[in-house]
Amino acid sequence: MKVLVVGANGQIGKHLVTFMKDHDSLEAKAMIRNEEQAAFFENLGAETVVVDLEDDIPAIAKAAEGVDAVVFTAGSGAHTGKDKTIMVDLDGAVKTIEAAKSVGVKRFIMISSFDTRRQAIQEAPASFAPYVAAKFYADEWLRRTDLDYTIIHPGLLTNNEGTGMVEAAEEVGRNEIPREDVAKVIIASLENENTIRKEFQIVKGNTPIQEAIAAI
């Protein structure tokens, strides 16, 4: 399975492409924003394509040609303003969904926020609410398609070493999770068709990732 990793130069994206290198059944195509980011992925033997999420749908669609799945791991980052949150986390996500549809890619995995229900927007701190709102609408757009989607809602992301153990369910208690383990959950979701048209929250836990995802 060839997978377009959107936001490959982000922290989850880099882990994902790195881990996919060791999977015989998975091949990464890294979508990056500029050519200077390519060396990391080329050293892994991964194909790269340079597209900015603020480009138009045809540009993203061209990047998605020839792949079997799209994983959206991109994010505007904590230090950008509301404008970038709208352009990347909302519009960039929607354009990527539409691009996948336009080239016939059915499998789509979205890395979302932990809780994107309407109430979560109202309860979020003022600085975080725009991000939750962007994810709310991007997730809703994806749900209304006929794509074979999976929406993953990770807890508080950390750079701790992954444990390979998680808690995964439609709703779990708030907790943190290493980015490495989020990347491994993405791989397990790609490998398990039972995750199609489902969404779930993930945090650190005591269940091996493959087992937790197989039980979704």
Key structural traits:
single chain, 216 residues, alpha/beta, Rossmann fold, nine-stranded mixed β-sheet, two-stranded parallel sheet, 8 helices, globular
Structural class: alpha/beta
Portion of residues in beta strands equals 15-25%
The level 1 CATH classification is Alpha Beta
Task: Name the poorly predicted regions.
Answer: none
Mean pLDDT: 95
The ordered H/E elements are EHEHEHEHEHHEEEEHEEH
Biggest sheet character? 9 strands, mixed
Global geometry: globular
Q: Report the total helices.
A: 8
Helix content: 25-40%
Gap between N and C termini = 21 Å
Tell me the layout of helices and strands.
Blueprint: E1 2-6, H1 11-20, E2 27-32, H2 38-43, E3 47-50, H3 57-64, E4 69-72, H4 82-102, E5 107-111, H5 118-123, H6 129-143, E6 148-154, E7 156-158, E8 165-169, E9 176-178, H7 179-191, E10 198-204, E11 207-208, H8 209-214
Parallel strand pairs: 1-2, 1-4, 2-3, 4-5, 5-6, 6-10, 7-9
Antiparallel strand pairs: 8-10, 8-11
Helix pairs in contact: 1-7, 3-4, 4-6
